[in-house]
Structure of HNH nuclease domain-containing protein:
Amino acid sequence: MGFENARAVGPHSLTFATMEDEMETRILLASKMHESCRHSPSHRALKRAGFWSMLMILDMSVLFELLHELETASWMERRRLVCGLVPVAQRLPMLVKICMSSLQPNSFPMNADQSTVLQRPYALGFPESSSLVMRTERLRSQAERAKVKNLTQAYNRDEGRCAVTGTTDPDVCHIFPFADNESDQYRHHLVGLFHMEAFWGEARCRRLYKCLSSGRLPNMIDTAANMICLNREVHTSWAQGLLAFEPLETPATCWPCIRLRVHWLQKTQVPSMESRVSFSTDPRTVLVPEDMRMTRSRPVTDGQVITIFAERKDQLPNRDILELQWAFLRMHSLSGAPDAHIYPWHPEQDDGFWDTDDD
């Protein structure tokens, strides 16, 4: 399963004899972090499966660093650190919800004339202004042409084939959400993504902000860097959180490329990211048994490595966005992979999320 493939790197990296040793170490670190948080005025979100699932997929060096900070800090400093973890833990279900909402089909090829449906605007009930109508239609036409251009670029980059199976007539898929990128909920919770420096580092968070933020600066959301061609079967499995792509190290080649490993994710018996869970739980002991009939019918083998080439590096699927997809889909799977729409945009409105039971 995908979440078992993490490796320890960085200043505190260890050489593990087996993957089992690594998982045992990860569980120990997660349990100690949970205990450190409990000894401070902690929040219910830090006791939920969402936070546990994040600790299960984080880089081992990050776990070592966080635990070291918590265990060596003064009481006041530890309280500050724990308070800094709370908004991250609170927003994890909503961020998974946003991530899952991106995996909707954009069928290609598209006809620009058919895709551009212009509606004549009216301002506050007054008669329409011909100049306003012309300007609006021109801007919308430009936006539609740009959209078709970017879809075409991704389609041509992948040679009109599924990047995984090589079959023709694929969907051109957004890796991170496009349709919801102007909603208030999207913007509100996406801000939390950019403040996860303790988990993903400042440099990555800055890059993600540049890639995904919806403001005056152009972002990558509707460009080929946020798109990949998949056939309908692979796309459906991806949209259901059954399959994820792990970005691998890029080999030295004469052409810009990115390598991805395909993982079929096995969900656990945990009900959801909002459920209480023991932080000493070994994910492998609570896996839902796989249906062998479904396994045999998979369109691609678990662990298969694919390589995507492009003429320029900025035309490749963006590594940071793919890392985001890889992280959130594993957390979703570890937390039972329920329909992500069950997660409310405002967790304080859900009594189940805010129960007051202690450990």
